[in-house]
Design goal:
- Pfam families: SDF.
- It is a single chain.
- This protein is mainly alpha-helical.
- The chain folds into 2 domains: 1-49; 52-249, Proton glutamate symport protein, CATH 1.10.3860.
- It contains 12 helices and no strands.
- Helix 3 runs parallel beside helix 11.
- The mean pLDDT is 84.
Length: 264
């Protein structure tokens, strides 16, 4: 805002930001092209370091089951319970109307890519467009409850792989750090892996161990994106039902003013 107000004097600074944007975008594109080679190489390196592949596979399977169970509890118990307590409406009927958005999230693994479909689903459920246009974009950026749960579980899993028994204080640290890191995660596929480095650093764990989780992240990423989308949509429904009387009053007042203007 200040750069735009200053005008020509601040143009070199604006050009610097523009140049940074172009350079970083190009760097990300290069990394994405190298990804299909780099990621399998990371996994292969980690597999060569593992002495007991069967035991490691068993640990990964238990990790996946734990994450899936946690995401299921969040999506079908915790969020519906909060929704019901706050609105006194049937959360599972609301959840049923989100089927298309959930399938889109499962297919794209991106909250941002699922936004248009989520808008349509909420429109069919009767949620006020004024609520969805504000809450959904904000939710897609900051409301990453599935990602927070995944990052905390993955960090504890990596700690156990390194033979580290976490104290209660460290578990609280993991929970808080994972929640804050998930807020900064982008709404794109596998963005949680990047912010998980923050959580691992907070615990003093080696960041290289994240390559073990990459092997199963492609599947778990889709599931946690579904939970993120459900959380965003239920947040919209929550705000809509809480503010329903106020929203209806605004509509009635607007219609009354419109009729008055036409009469004049």
């Amino acid at each position: 805002m200040v750069i735009s107000r200053v005008g020509d004097d601040a143009k070199p600074l604006a050009n610097l930001f523009h140049a940074l944007d172009v350079v970083i975008t190009r760097m990300v594109m290069i990394i994405m092209w190298l990804g299909p080679i780099g990621i399998p190489s990371l996994i292969a390196q980690k597999m060569l370091e593992v002495s007991d592949l069967v035991q490691t596979a068993r640990m990964l399977a238990l990790f996946m089951i734990t994450v899936m169970l946690g995401l299921a509890i969040q999506a079908f118990v915790t969020l519906p319970l909060i929704f019901f307590i706050g609105t006194r409406h049937n959360p599972y009927r609301f959840l049923k109307g989100l089927g298309q958005a959930i399938l889109t999230a499962l297919g794209t693994s991106s909250s941002a890519a699922s936004l248009p479909v989520t808008f349509r689903c909420l429109n069919k459920l009767g949620v006020d467009p004024r609520v969805t246009k504000f809450v959904l974009p904000v939710g897609a950026m900051v409301n990453m409850d599935g990602t927070a749960l995944y990052e905390a579980t993955a960090s504890i899993f990596i700690a156990q792989m390194n033979g580290l028994d976490l104290s209660v204080g460290q578990i609280v640290t993991v929970s808080i750090t994972a929640t804050l890191a998930s807020i900064g995660a982008a709404s794109i596929p596998s963005a949680g892996l990047v912010t998980m480095l923050i959580v691992l650093t907070a615990l003093g764990l080696p960041a290289s161990d994240i390559s073990m989780v990459i092997a199963v992240d492609w599947f778990l990423d889709r599931l946690r994106t579904c939970v993120n989308v459900i959380g965003d949509a239920m947040g919209c429904g929550f705000v809509h039902y809480i503010c329903e009387d106020h929203l209806n009053a605004d509509v009635a007042e607007a219609e009354k003013n419109h009729v008055t203007v036409e009469a004049h």
